[in-house]
Design brief:
Low-confidence stretches: none
Oligomer: single chain
Strand content: 15-25%
Number of strands: 10
Helix content: 25-40%
Distance between the termini: 18 Å
Number of domains: 1
CATH architecture: 3-Layer(aba) Sandwich
Order of helices and strands: EHEHHEEHEHEEEHEHE
Radius of gyration: 17 Å
Shape: globular
Largest sheet: 7 strands, parallel
Strand order of the largest sheet: 1-10-9-6-2-3-5
CATH topology: Rossmann fold
Length: about 240
């Protein structure tokens, strides 16, 4: 795991965006798996700005939505769908056929998981996966547990996750969500982990102790050969 420390969030996001831009510029048909939330928002903003001069070239990327809250209307403002459309998909004009996305309103949960898993298999290896570090150490919605699921599944949300900032203004609080599994994430060629803000310091300190524990899913990143950690938290 390669760690890059920055003095503030803005410089972190600018550097991560430049790295992301270099990867996509070298492969404009790259498959990108994208997390949502506060951590990667600045990265996406900077990347979209860099991409404007190459918009026709970058429209060919394929985007995979990492996870989604369950039980909300598909156009609900708190969904990961609404977030990605606002911050990434619409500004970059990513077409429907280049987007793999859970439906938050899906009622046949098993069928929805099978559909996304089949799309992942057709797509092949993800070129770059953008992740944030959950406040309880989760990746996507892979929550701490005695065991972790390898592939796409329906996850019961930990109480801590139900307090996620994306759900603060929602009157409806999801208790479950859809997510890619740990094997799906770790199959990615490269992973960016964005960790920002002092409230993540305890989790970051734990992550930097290379002990792999299912009760701290992020620790499994130590099993991946190419993880870049971007943080503004100085633990010294």
């Amino acid at each position: 795991m390669n760690r890059f420390l920055f003095p503030d969030y803005d410089s972190l996001c600018k550097a991560a965006a430049e790295r992301m831009d270099a990867i996509v510029n070298s492969n404009p048909r790259a498959a990108l798996c994208l997390a949502t939330g506060a951590s990667p928002e600045g990265l996406y903003k900077n990347f979209v700005e860099l991409a404007q001069e190459k918009i026709e070239r970058y429209k060919r990327i394929h985007v995979v939505k990492l996870d989604e809250w369950g039980g909300l209307a598909d156009n609900h403002p708190s969904t990961c769908e609404s977030y990605l459309r606002k911050h990434f998909l619409d500004p970059l004009q990513v077409s429907h056929d280049r987007y793999t996305s859970f439906k938050s309103s899906a009622t046949d949960h098993a069928s929805e998981c099978r559909r996304i898993q089949a799309e992942l298999e057709r797509l092949g290896q993800i070129d770059l996966c953008i992740l944030g570090l959950g406040t309880n150490g989760h990746l996507g919605l892979n929550e701490p547990a005695p065991y972790l699921m390898a592939h796409v599944h329906l996850a019961k949300l930990a109480e801590q996750t139900q307090q996620h900032s994306m759900l603060e203004t929602s009157s409806q609080k999801p208790t479950f969500g859809f997510t890619l599994g740990m094997a799906d994430l770790l199959r990615s060629k490269k992973i960016f982990l964005i960790v920002s803000g002092e409230k993540k310091a305890r989790q970051l300190k734990r992550l930097l102790t290379p002990e792999i524990d299912t009760n701290f899913p992020a620790s499994f990143l130590w099993t991946h050969p190419d993880v870049e950690l971007f943080t503004d938290i100085d633990l010294n």
